[in-house]
Amino acid sequence: MTQDELKAKVGLAALEYLVPNEWVGVGTGSTVNKFIDALAASTTPIKGAVSSSQASTQRMLALGIKVVDLQQVERLAVYIDGADEIDGHGFMVKGGGAALTREKIVAAQADQFVCIADASKKVSVLGRFPLPVEVIPMAAPEIMRRFVAMGGSAMLRMKDGHALVTDNGQHLLDIQGLHIHDPLAFENQVSQWPGVVTVGVFAHQRAHVCLLGTEAGVETIRY
After folding, report:
1. Which residues are identified as catalytic?
2. CA distance 80 to 220
3. 192-208: per-residue pLDDT in tens?
């Protein structure tokens, strides 16, 4: 089975976690796109969706799914999103799609976080995938130096020859070479650095359930 087919399977399986006549939070990325396609064809009635990115909003609107701003919603029954990697405790690294800040905000307002991913995203220790960190541009050099002091290497994420600009108007750093054995402590530490908008470790907003696409089918992991 191809990786694309595995993503489609977990996207479809995530429909089981919809709560009828409630709001659903929707993340960002290629796996989430499969969920959005499945959601558009679903017969489960929902109030509508809250999106974590402009890209997901555009895709849902094009498919006829109602999208509202988070400010209009007091709570979400479920938030469904992918991950760049996820460990055995439901802690994740996210932000490959550059939407980590809005993803963390939306996830914090949901009763349940369902992570959808293919088996390649499961790790024993976070750090195999570059860690995204959204930063205020003027602080980027100092934040990069701090990560180097921790043993990592930091690069500014580029797009079309220029620094990528997030939906929030900020820049992204990608950090390689770290092994994050205590995600909660790491998230707490880096979040306090001046100029950090959001670090891509999701420990406080960890997954409650992971739907993992494997060759044998969809594996359900609860944390």
Report:
1. 103
2. 14
3. 999 999 999 999 999 99
